Fold this sequence. Notes:
By secondary structure, this protein is of the alpha/beta class. 35% of the residues lie in helices and 17% in strands. The chain contains six helices and nine strands. It has a seven-stranded mixed sheet with strand order 3-2-1-4-7-9-8, with helices on both faces. Strands 5-6 form a two-stranded antiparallel sheet. Helix 2 packs antiparallel against helix 5.
Amino acid sequence: MSEVKLDILAFGAHPDDVELSCAGTIVKHVAQGKAVGIVDLTRGELGSRGSAEIRLQEAQMAAKLMGLKVRVNLEMADGFFEYNKANQLEIIQQVRRFKPDIVLCNAVADRHPDHGKGSKLVADACFLSGLVRIETEWEGQAQEHWRPKAIYHYIQDRYCKPDLIVDITEYFGKKMEVILAYKSQFYDPKSSEPHTPISSPEFLEFIKGRSSQYGRLINAPYGEGYTVERTLGVDDLTTLK
């Protein structure tokens, strides 16, 4: 695979984290000509429905629908990956490999413990990636240090007040199409697998309602919210919604 510099690199603890939380943002920026990729930390192998192999296939279908340049799975242990040096170095390799200007990652705290854990792991690795004395290699070549300009945490299951909201109105339909690429996980009337909190049609209505809720805050039909790690700056007050 030839390497490509990405404008945006999104990390998710599980395949489908990114789709549920910020697929609209991704599709919107791809439509603007931005290069976007995803790194999944785990295969989601502890999920009650489907399997790691099925979810990998679904993740690749979702990647195609979103127009991603690349999607990588680090195959950390679902539910049990640790905040440690080895995992930080794996993430640093991907940050230095794709040199994103912006990183999107899991919510700082959420219902699933992997979300907050993954959030902290990725955010800290992005900082460490900028340190010259941390040495990494990719495919036998020494990597240059790289630190993204900004890290934005998408909002997941638990509500929190966003620091910024992206208007995804034009791309909301595509977002839902991307989510439904995960047929094993979300509502499918033909499925005979166990019922879970996210497999009901009501859960899809929750996703729609959350997007509508955030959209309303910026006078738009649909939006996706993010929290930030540092104060945002703007050049022109008149461009803000």
